[in-house]
Each structure stands twice: as C-alpha cells, then as structure tokens.
Design brief:
This protein folds into three domains: 183 residues, Growth Hormone, Chain: A; 56 residues; 193 residues, MFS general substrate transporter like domains (Growth Hormone, Chain: A), CATH 1.20.1250. 51% of the residues are buried. The protein is globular and about 65 Å long. By secondary structure, it is mostly helical.
Length: 457
C-alpha cells in the first residue's frame, strides 16, 4: 500500500466512522435530551427520524455530486457541515432547534458515506480494493462498539451534549489528512447536474422513507402517510423514465446492465432487510418477553460487532484473492443458520446456551458477507461512477431495512409472544438464505487485472 493509498483509506474510514458513530450513539442520549429539552416520545422519535429522512432522500443526489464535483470536494464539504452542525446541536436551546440541525446532519451524512467509498474504489484496484473495503468495514464497525459506550459515559458523567462534540475529533483529523494528501480531484469536462432528476430522486426517496418511518404513528390510512408515499412512488417512476432519456442523467441506468452490480443490489435487498428485521426483533424480545434489562439486551449482539472488527479485513482480503461469489453465497446462508438457532428461545431465555451460539454463527456469516458484497458491487462499475454506485447500494440497503421493519407488525400478527418471535426469526433466516442463493446465481468472479495505482478521482 502506497502512502497515498494509506492516507485515502484512513480518510475514508474517519469520514464514515463519524456518520456511523452518530447513528449508534444517539439512542443512548435520547432520554437525557428529552428530559432537558422536553417534548417526550415525539421529540425522541424526530431526533432520530430527521437524520434518517434527510440522509436517505439525498443519498442518490450526494453520490451524483461526488462523481460530478469530485470525491475530495464533497467529502470536505460533508465533514465541515457535519462538524458545524454537531457543535450547534451541542448548544441547542430547544428541541425544535436540535431536530432541524439533525436534519442538517443527515444531509452531511449523505455526502460522507458515498464519497468515502468512492474514494477507495477510485484509488484501489482488484485484490487491493477488496482488502481496503474489508479494512473500511472493520474499522467503521468499531463505531457501533464505541458509540453506546462513549454515549453512556458522556450522558452519565458529563452531559448528552458531549455526545455530539466528540464528532469534532475524527472530523478534524480527516480534514487535516485531506490537506496532507494534497490531491486534486480529476473531473470530466462539460458534465452538468441533472436538476430534474435530482428533484424527482429526492422526492421519490424522501416520500416513501418518511411514510415507512412514520406509518407506525399515523397508520397507512392517514393522508400524512399515503400522500407522501404515493407521490414518492410516482416520482420514482418519473425519475426512471427521465433518466432513460436525459443527456447527462444523475443515475446512468446502464450501470444496472453490469451483472455484479445488478445482482449484488438484489442480494443487498434480502440481506439488509434481514439485518434490520432480525436485529430489531431479538433485542425487543429479550426485553419485553424474556425480561432482560435494556443494557444487557443491547449488548446481546456485541460479538457481531467484534466479529466484523476482526474478520472483515480477513474476508475482504480472501475475497480479493478468490473472488466474492463464494463468500457472498456462504456468508448469508451461515448467518441464516445462526438465526435459526434462536428458535430454541422461549419465555425463559438463557443467554449463554440459547442466544450466544446463534450470535456467534451469525457473526461469522455477516463478517464473511459485507466486505465481499461491497467490493463485488462497486468493483464492477467504472471508477468514475463509484459515487453514484455507492449511493445506490446505500439507498437500497436503507429502504430494504425500513420496509422490513415496517412489516414486523404484519409478521407478528398481534402482540409479541414466543410464536410471533419465532415467525420473525424464520422470515429473517429465509431472507438471509435467499440473499446467499441470489449471490450464487448472479455473482461472477471477475478476471483479475494487473495491479495499478490509479490517481484519486
């Protein structure tokens, strides 16, 4: 790994770490925020939802910006915006002010994740690229370990406001390293923004995402839900029709003709729907039915984060050497078998014999899946389209997770009990196994090219 590549990888990790850390730390701070600023449960929900809605609705546009204006420029803007909004949140005088700034954080987060991955894709090739993505996955997974711990310490011994101040440290380091990198973006001449596509894309993603998040509060029969959902779906259809004939489309639909990109995103739908569905139901069941304290229930999946930290780099390297197909097939299937082990759980749960074995098996399967999946999808398209490609995959994973979470009530069919929990577990395992089957059918190992060190684009 050259000095330039090493700097790029660290910058990409720090930029993504900030966004993922914020997602993992916020839940710990919600009760303290509500207690000080008021607003009750609705305030807590909107502190989370404002971030998710803006991030999800703008992710495609941000990915397009990354390709048009350059990854380093967009990354720098995202880091500065995230840092400033974090500091302003830390001095929020009211809940309304905080919620608005959480929306701004979501916009900044949309700029960070696609740009950071696009920077890796345009800097590394072949086996080195898979290894870099594995390391990126491992270190960003560490944010899910650090988030609740740091958040708990700050809330208990200082203030919830310090939860947001902590973002400034990795942001400052990343901005300094961008300066040290001294690398200018390489951009195509004459490329313009697809403004109509941008508007249709934002509405098309934002409307359904808002409806999926808020349907639990208002119900699908409410105009506040079915109107944005319907308008969003129509906008998505119009977006696709427009992108087919636009001279400079925001989303070049031709990238879906690339086999690994198309099939990889189909696999993403099943895998990330399962991750959202299973992760939610196990933690809730352990608390509401099995009687676990909230902290212990939240720590039940700690081995999964540890597994990602220690194994993602290994499987990323192996994927680069042997190709992603084997790992994208076996990983989700192993993860599904891990979930099936949870079927031994009843009203009385022994963590060590009924939870931990399934968590460990699932952890190995997930670690085997994520880095090869990302590498297969993004490594199959031209580096010039890495920003929009990363944004598409990110949007697919988020929307799949939201749809799966919204379907939990239908699967449970009433109050959560052992039978309802088992139904959700079976659906989760089936989705993971389907993700593995789709990968086996659709993913192909690409011929390796001679290693090169391309310029940062």
């Amino acid at each position: 790994m050259t000095r330039q590549q090493r700097l790029v990888l660290i910058i990409a990790i720090l930029a993504s770490f900030v966004a993922f850390l914020d997602s993992s730390v916020i839940n710990v701070a919600l009760p303290a925020i509500s207690k000080e600023l008021g607003g009750g449960l609705s305030t807590q929900q909107w502190v989370v939802d404002a971030y998710l809605i803006t991030l999800s609705s703008l992710i495609l546009l941000a990915g397009s910006f990354s390709d048009v204006f350059g990854r380093i420029v967009i990354l720098r803007v995202g880091l500065i915006a995230f840092g400033v909004s974090s500091l302003l949140i830390a001095i929020s005088p009211s809940a309304e002010f905080l919620i608005i700034l959480r929306g701004v954080q979501g916009i900044a987060g949309a700029l960070l994740v696609p740009s950071s991955l696009a920077l890796i894709i345009s800097t590394f090739r072949d086996a080195a690229q898979s290894k870099a993505i594995g390391l990126w996955t491992a270190w960003t997974s560490a944010s899910f370990l650090a988030g609740p711990i740091l958040g708990g310490l700050f809330v208990d011994y200082l203030s919830w406001r310090w939860v947001f101040v902590i973002n400034v440290i990795p942001i400052g380091i990343a901005l300094w390293m961008l300066f040290v990198l001294k690398q200018k973006d390489v951009r195509e001449e004459g490329v313009k923004i697809d403004y109509l596509g941008a508007v249709l894309g934002v509405i098309g993603l934002g409307g359904p995402v808002f409806a999926l998040i808020e349907q639990g509060n208002y119900g699908w029969g409410s105009p506040a839900i079915f109107l944005p959902f319907g308008i969003g779906i129509l906008s998505l259809v119009a977006f696709i029709l427009w992108e087919r004939k636009a001279k400079m489309p925001m989303l070049p639909l031709g990238i879906f003709s690339t086999r690994n990109f198309a099939w990889g995103n189909v696999s993403t739908v099943f895998i990330y729907a399962a991750l959202s569905l299973g992760g939610f139901i196990v933690v809730v069941f352990l608390q509401q039915v099995a009687g676990f304290p909230a902290t212990l229930a939240a720590l039940a999946f700690l081995p999964v984060s540890l597994g990602n930290v220690f194994l993602s780099g290994v499987f990323g390297t192996l994927s680069g050497k042997y190709g992603p197909r084997l790992f994208m097939t076996a990983g989700p299937i192993i993860g599904g078998l891990g979930y099936l082990l949870f079927l031994t759980m009843g009203e009385d749960v022994n963590y060590w014999t009924q939870v931990l074995p399934g968590v460990i098996v699932f952890s190995v399967g997930l670690s085997m899946t994520v880095a090869p999946l990302t590498a297969a999808i993004l490594g199959s398209i031209p580096a010039a389209q890495a920003g929009i490609g990363s944004a598409v995959n990110n949007a697919v994973s988020r929307v799949a997770g939201l749809i799966a979470t919204a379907m939990i009530g239908v699967i449970i069919a009433g109050t959560l009990d052992v039978d309802g929990f088992h139904r959700v577990i079976i659906v989760t395992a089936a989705l993971l196994i389907l993700g593995g089957i789709v990968s086996f059918v659709g993913i192909r190992n690409l011929a390796r090219q001679p290693a090169t060190v391309p310029p940062v684009a």
